[in-house]
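Let's study today's protein:

:::
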Amino acid sequence: MKKANKFAVGSGCYVCRCCGRKTRDVGGDGSSIGLCEQCYEVGGIENQIADGNYDGPGELALLQAEIAQLNEFVRSKGGKV
């Protein structure tokens, strides 16, 4: 029977520099700098907000809600935001 695990042999885990939870390299840019996928996304959204790359308060609220949702996911998996 074929294994259900889709991670490559030897890929191993690393600890996210931001939230501290164990994660694996899933092919995104975050792994190269030691971040889990969610923390990498939060950083990108925070940079977008800091740079003013949004259209008005409505889009800002949506971006902040997305950050909150990602942070909640990290907490639910044992990370510390």
User: Anything to note?
Assistant: The helical segments are 37-50, 56-76. The longest strand covers residues 13-15. The chain has two helices and two strands.
